[in-house]
Amino acid sequence: MTQEYNVAVAGATGAVGSEIIQILEQRNFPIDNLYLLASSKSKGKKLEFKNKEIIVEDLAEFDFSKAQIGLFSPGGKISAKYAPKAANAGCIVIDNTSHFRMQKNIPLIVPEVNSDALEEFFQNEERTNIIANPNCSTIQMVVALKPLHEQSIINRVVVSTYQAVSGAGKTGMDELFNQTQNVYANKELKKEKFTKQIAFNAIPHIGAFLENGNTEEEQKMIDETKKILDEEIKVSATCVRTAVFIGHSEAINIEFDSPLDAKEAHNLLSKSDGISVIDHRKDEGYVTPVEIAGEDKVYISRIRNDDSIDNGLSLWVVSDNLRKGAALNAVQIAETIIKDYDQYIQ
Questions:
Q1: Cα–Cα distance measured from residue 238 to residue 107, given in angstroms and rounded to the nearest whole number
Q2: Has 136 been annotated as catalytic?
């Protein structure tokens, strides 16, 4: 008989929390008791899981000694407060916010890329019991980079992202929907979530600006790629919010320390876990966000050599930011833990 676990989902009523619940059901994660947690405003709300209704509980009142695994996506400030409480109660927390990602004693995990970092984490008797889920744009990029980096060391990456409004949560999706309607109705376009009109537009601004000129999103891609993949990789990122509901796209240019041609890269990527290569040099022979909404893999197209630099390669990478970019990756971390590190679960 398969062992079952008590799982808590914090931020259960949000966009990522809803995806986590769906993915737990779709992947038949072995659950004994599922606790759905949110703010006091959502307390008493009913959500469905495996054809049963589960009543949402107040995160602030929950006793985490009842949960063995916690999947957190309630927002950074809330995770900062409650994730350590859950961890101290013996719950293994997988946190989807940015709060813990760059802390040295907390691993930043993409299972296809660096699941081996969990071994050192669990063997540490003073472990925090908190594991961080990387940024959505970072996840799909490092999944694409990992098999190439193993073949030929990557020296530098230049990436431009085209990120869906769902990365800004339900309010971001609502703003795009309402503004689009109002354009056609010739009504006033209200800006609340984004700094400029998002409908029919692209905004090169995700997160606050930092002193070095990068936005927070761009700095996350730089710092997280180094922590996950290789500290020596140089990364330049430009992150753009676009008028797409679901699915982040990235144009990635890579400079290697030795030759790696497009054909070899195509073969390497095609054989790699979590990747689907769709790369035909003809009309419709590539992937766009519309096709991958609801899909689990990282999709790669437009693989080609960049002759403007030595050992250069360019890729087009697309993935569902709510699934692989957030909820799915968190569940995959939990699956890795119950498979390889079950003895550390209380």
A1: 25
A2: yes
Taking the C-alpha atoms of residue 37 and residue 67, their distance in angstroms, rounded to an integer, is 12
- Catalytic option among 136, 149, 239, 280: 136
**Rounded CA separation 214/317 (Å):** 22
Rounded Cα gap, residues 231 and 96, in angstroms: 22
Neighbours of 209 (CB within 10 A): 11
Residue 303 belongs to what H/E stretch? strand 298-306
Q: Which two tokens stand for residue 66?
A: 């009842």
- The 10s digit of each residue's pLDDT in 42-74 is 999 999 999 999 999 999 999 999 999 999 999
Selected catalytic residue, list 91, 99, 239, 248: 248
Instruction: Tally the residues of the chain.
Output: 346
pTM: 0.96
Q: Which of 151, 152, 141 is nearest to 218 (CA)?
A: 141
